[in-house]
Amino acid sequence: MTVTIYDVAREAKVSMATVSRVLNGNPNVKPETRKKVKDVIDRLNYRPNAVARGLASKKTTTVGVIIPDISDLYYSALARGLEDIAEMYNYQIIITNTDQDPKKERNAFLNLVSKQVDGIIFLGGKLNSDVLQDIETSRVPVVICGSGEEDNDIPNVNINYYEAAKEVAGKLIADGTKNICFVTAGYSRYQESRMISGMKEAYEEAGFNGDDYLMTEDAGDYEKGKEIFGKLLDNERDAVIVISDEAAIGILHGGHEHGVAMPQRLQIISCSNTRLVTMVRPKISSVAVPLYDLGAVGMRLLTKLMNEEEVDTTSVELPYSIDYRTTTR
Amino acid sequence: MTVTIYDVAREAKVSMATVSRVLNGNPNVKPETRKKVKDVIDRLNYRPNAVARGLASKKTTTVGVIIPDISDLYYSALARGLEDIAEMYNYQIIITNTDQDPKKERNAFLNLVSKQVDGIIFLGGKLNSDVLQDIETSRVPVVICGSGEEDNDIPNVNINYYEAAKEVAGKLIADGTKNICFVTAGYSRYQESRMISGMKEAYEEAGFNGDDYLMTEDAGDYEKGKEIFGKLLDNERDAVIVISDEAAIGILHGGHEHGVAMPQRLQIISCSNTRLVTMVRPKISSVAVPLYDLGAVGMRLLTKLMNEEEVDTTSVELPYSIDYRTTTR
DNA sequence: ATGAAAGCGCTAACAT
DNA sequence: ATGTTAGCGCTTTCAT
């Protein structure tokens, strides 16, 4: 019924090995033989069974992607970058959503390993010790993208969130706005704590103690952003640095509803840089994180790891810039 | 090195067949034997090789998803719904982006088939005859989600875009605004032509000839939406029905820049219903397409198809509603 | 309830 | 340059 390599071999009057060779571009095949085999392949409309191939070769040309939520613009931008590069190198990707749930994360990892993926990419996520342990024992190449995790020895690609936060806060402080609220989203605790350190450093350099001024709130989506607006007012904040773009928009609209002038009374800078920030009015100032590139570079790194090529750094840091738009003075 | 079913069998002093049985929940295993085997599995930390399993059983518990662009909010919402259900039924999903390119689409399909996926879901896309042919010959269950394709006999799930367009246009016309522009996005020509039919029917029912009033423009993203705003003005449009939410926002902002009052001078209704429509001001009226459900129901349908269960309809139509917000009068 | 053995469709030595 | 053959790690008859 389904045509196999054996059928092709028989029809072409060669051995399976030869068919396999032309399939895999092995140069040790006489051109005429190659042509003969190719003709039969076309005639029979033969398509190699990738599963059998995977079992025999121990390579599946598929990589797993573990992602908090594909419908989040931040992650889907990363995913797109990553898939484009994967396609370029002839890898397919299996995507699993975890909603940051450690159980789901571990499950996803184990599933992928049992599917014999050649490599795994983590986007965001917290990587609890269970998974860390699994990574260790499974010996699958893993890279972490855009989560700010750089404390362990797993290859990763990020921007320098510490510096970004420091720069943003520094600019704000220099302009005299010291009552900053950092609005976290729970994407990555590690990244967020790095950013807090950066901000405190900015205070320090300006001669202030960050603890006297900086406060923290949590809001990961639009509704939550609107919700916390009151608190920002109550605490006399005059600037927010917010991880989630959607939360930033929520805050923006919360401000509209309260009749608060922005950026005069409250400045907003977001940190995810999805295309949302330029699709609202006023346009939101943001840290220009190269989302697509983060994914693309991560996948490129993974291809090298899977090929056992030498890599100079397993911790790559992409440049970022800061786009001051209309929610900052 | 890697522990196989054979190792488990040896350690548990049973045959591979028995181990396989406990692995697959076959009831024909004495409880004590089952326990013994399970203990060894835990002790050795054995994980079945899904590739070998796939080769032997001809089932891979993975389904392919062919999608125009995962970073498009519309598709990623569908994808999320679909993946949630897939996870529920223990399927993994391989995602491929095609940018609506027929070549890429065909390639993706062929790749998935060679990976022996148990089923394939198409989101959007045009399904040219090549692919249609491949679907025919490969005999893989396929379902199409949210693309409005219902002209062929491939199982699909959609809303009734014809009715939705008719309803929206009808309301507009009844209110006296007849100069409508339908802004397409090229997502699905078929869906768009169905919608045009619906709109014309609405004119008809109101006693007008749609051809005298209806015009069409194309804009699939924010920038394009802003760009075409001039044309809308030049053609004295007083309402737009637009496929892409981002284009709708572009038009909205184009209006702001031209100082055009909305909805007084121009009404906007979008048709994708991503969460963007409520994240801009004014909020955009839209056809409330149940994106997540479209994906979820599609995947559920596919699981039935893969199980060779009886399905009553292979063409399911989900209900929709229309949310009149602030860009309509 | 359990075991033996024949594949699943391919790759990769090893021979020639 | 080509063929032979032994797996890859599992499922699945078929016996018992």
TrEMBL record, chains A, B:
The keyword rRNA processing does not apply. Pfam families: LacI, Peripla_BP_1. Keywords: Activator, DNA-binding, Repressor, Transcription, Transcription regulation. InterPro entries: CcpA, HTH_LacI, Lambda_DNA-bd_dom_sf, Peripla_BP/Lac1_sug-bd_dom, Peripla_BP_I. The keyword Repeat does not apply. Gene3D superfamilies: 3.40.50.2300, lambda repressor-like DNA-binding domains. It comes from the Bacteria. Residues 3-57 form the HTH lacI-type domain. Global transcriptional regulator of carbon catabolite repression (CCR) and carbon catabolite activation (CCA), which ensures optimal energy usage under diverse conditions. This is Catabolite control protein A. It comes from Jeotgalicoccus nanhaiensis. The gene is ccpA.
